[in-house]
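Hi F.,

I've been meaning to write this up properly since the lab meeting, where we talked about keeping a consistent format for the predictions we share between groups. The idea is simple: the sequence comes first, exactly as it goes in, then the structure tokens exactly as they come out, then a line or two of notes. No screenshots and no reformatting. I'm using this chain as the first example so we have something concrete to point to.
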Amino acid sequence: MVSYRIRLDTTTNWAIVTNVGLTTVAFSNADVSHAVFLFAMVLTFFFLQLEARRFRVYELSHRRVRLLERSFYGEVLTGQGEPNWRETLAVSLREPSHTMSHVQAFAWRLRRNYLWIYLGLLLVWLMKLELFQTSDFIAQAHVAAIPGWLVIFIVLVFYSFGGVLAFWVGRYRLEDD
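Output, unedited:
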């Protein structure tokens, strides 16, 4: 379980370090475009996808360990355990199947870790647009030939989609959570 947790924490650390580095670059020079933060949002989405996939494997392992803790140790210490726990564990090992969907894992990790990362990114993006503006706020948000209003609209849709996933997708609870 420790190695699975380390894999999850490593992905989150990559996202944080990458975003801090990009923020440092973007604020170090007024000539650096705010598009760096849009790139950071996409890159963070990639890290979140990777972590959701890893979390599904972690959750499967977590269920197996909990089964051993409740049944094997319960049987050894008290003489009582869950009936058929050995068969349940054997089937899980022979034919592994995830008990949570990728969307549920994505929403779980977004709620638990990445929501704060994304809120920070949104804040620094808005600060970059406001602090270094040379024209009105909406016009300042343009990226290459894409007008500012469209960039802002895309970011709003992206964050709305994330909010829907984080708060309205079926809640999944780990056994001991």
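Notes:
The two ends are 15 Å apart (CA to CA).
The chain has a mean pLDDT of 87.

If this format works for you, I'll send the rest the same way.

G.
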